[in-house]
């Protein structure tokens, strides 16, 4: 064994990178991660508590987010950065270390609003919308969930009736992130030939939005209902290159990918807070980090964080090599959301009563993660997706 190797083995690994995952990243990937981390530390963390408490989204950050190239960053051309899936994932991780609402904004813009135009739109639609969306000049939202149809999205009642050169939309979409601030809605509706996607601009007669208030989760995020009443859109606003549930489900897979990464950032923020607190909080004349039960909690949190990070890194590598299967996304989304939420709860227990205040980020993350645990496919739905892949038997019906 060389002296250098011995010295390296003697070094204690970083508490937040026990498996030296940093070593597995390329220089570009580390640069993206560190750039977004710096932005979150300097621009997000100083203001996010106030926005969470007030129930407002920090819209003033949108130009800076766009300037960093984060909107549609995993798409090629049309003013988009064209970065790898791993780079996109790392950006989501760092954004959600700030707040789930911020990562949700970027996820919806890039994966749920820009991606369907990129994947299923006409060339005219791509050229018209994507560069402006990448610059943050046009904000998008994704209209799929309805008041009576969440997990069973295929049962949607929103309809699109052809009338000459137009479609007439009627229906309601609910729990729509960015809905109240969006300039453009990607709306999925039932047409005569199946489920179709439509681009509906703010200000179109018959299209209105109403924000959902009194939320205890994702408070620094805009959540809305979309209402369509005899709303006429040009037939040219239909996404021409997809029909059926393949369209919206493929968009959801894009978003779920980012969520799988994002929640590791929230978990890391909770773990780091609990670790630092445990080392400085003195009880019975010594830091509580010296107690066996506290060390057990920290060890469990660190272990789950490593596992989640390794899951997402492999997920990103598979996506970049075009080998990714949807069930792999479901596995990562289910595991990482579940363990991030458990990490937040364990971290809160270490802080005791201090953990419920906005002086520390833990309860904010914990409340946010309750929503992330549910949206883009509930824990139950992803469990059944995995079960079907394992058994070949559909348990949904």
From TrEMBL:
Its cofactor is FAD. InterPro entries: Acyl-CoA_Oxase/DH_mid-dom, Acyl-CoA_Oxase/DH_mid-dom_sf, AcylCo_DH-like_C, AcylCo_DH/oxidase_C, AcylCoA_DH/ox_N, AcylCoA_DH/ox_N_sf, AcylCoA_DH/oxidase_NM_dom_sf, Glutaryl-CoA_DH_mitochondrial. GO terms for molecular function: fatty-acyl-CoA binding; flavin adenine dinucleotide binding; glutaryl-CoA dehydrogenase activity. Residues 26-137 form the Acyl-CoA dehydrogenase/oxidase N-terminal domain. The keyword Oxidoreductase applies. GO terms for biological process: fatty acid beta-oxidation using acyl-CoA dehydrogenase; fatty-acyl-CoA biosynthetic process. Residues 141-231 form the Acyl-CoA oxidase/dehydrogenase middle domain. Keywords: FAD, Flavoprotein, Oxidoreductase, Transit peptide. It comes from the Bacteria. Gene3D superfamilies: Acyl-CoA dehydrogenase/oxidase, N-terminal domain, Butyryl-CoA Dehydrogenase, subunit A, domain 2, Butyryl-CoA Dehydrogenase, subunit A, domain 3. Its EC number is 1.3.8.6. The keyword Transit peptide applies. It is an enzyme of class 1 (oxidoreductase). Belongs to the acyl-CoA dehydrogenase family. This is Acyl-CoA dehydrogenase domain protein. The lineage of its organism: Bacteria, Bacillati, Chloroflexota, Ktedonobacteria, Ktedonobacterales.
């Amino acid at each position: 064994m060389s002296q250098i190797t011995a010295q390296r083995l003697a070094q204690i690994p970083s508490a937040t990178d026990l498996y030296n995952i940093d070593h597995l990243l390329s220089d570009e990937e580390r640069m993206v991660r560190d750039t977004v981390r710096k932005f979150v530390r300097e621009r997000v963390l100083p203001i996010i508590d106030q926005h969470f408490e007030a129930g407002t989204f920090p819209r003033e950050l949108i130009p800076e987010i766009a300037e960093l190239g984060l909107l549609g960053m995993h798409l090629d051309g049309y003013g988009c950065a064209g970065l790898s899936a791993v780079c996109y994932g790392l950006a989501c991780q760092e954004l959600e270390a700030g707040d789930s609402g911020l990562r949700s904004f970027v996820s919806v813009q890039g994966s749920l609003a820009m991606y369907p135009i990129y994947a299923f739109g006409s060339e005219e639609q791509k050229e018209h919308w994507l560069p402006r969306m990448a610059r943050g000049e046009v904000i998008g939202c994704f209209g799929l969930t309805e008041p009576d149809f969440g997990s069973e999205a295929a049962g949607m009642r929103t309809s699109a009736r052809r009338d000459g050169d137009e479609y007439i939309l009627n229906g309601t979409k609910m729990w729509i992130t960015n809905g109240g601030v969006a300039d453009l809605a990607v709306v999925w509706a039932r047409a005569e030939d199946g489920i179709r996607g439509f681009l509906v601009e703010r200000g179109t007669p018959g299209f209105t939005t109403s924000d959902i208030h009194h939320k205890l989760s994702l408070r620094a995020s805009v959540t809305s209902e979309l209402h369509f009443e005899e709303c006429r859109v040009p037939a040219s606003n239909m996404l021409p290159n997809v029909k059926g549930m393949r369209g919206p489900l493929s968009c959801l897979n894009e978003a779920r990918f980012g969520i799988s990464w994002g929640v590791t950032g929230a978990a890391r923020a909770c773990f780091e807070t609990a670790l630092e607190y445990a080392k400085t909080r003195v009880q019975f004349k010594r830091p509580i980090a010296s107690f066996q039960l506290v060390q057990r909690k920290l060890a469990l949190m660190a272990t789950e964080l490593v596992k989640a990070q390794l899951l997402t890194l492999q997920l990103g590598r598979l996506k970049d090599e075009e080998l990714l299967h949807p069930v792999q996304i479901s596995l990562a989304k289910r595991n990482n959301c579940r363990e991030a939420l458990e990490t937040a709860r364990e971290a809160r227990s270490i802080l005791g009563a201090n953990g419920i205040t906005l002086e520390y980020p833990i309860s904010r993350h914990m409340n946010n993660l309750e929503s992330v645990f549910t949206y883009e496919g509930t824990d139950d739905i992803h469990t059944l997706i995995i079960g079907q892949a394992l058994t070949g038997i559909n348990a949904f019906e």
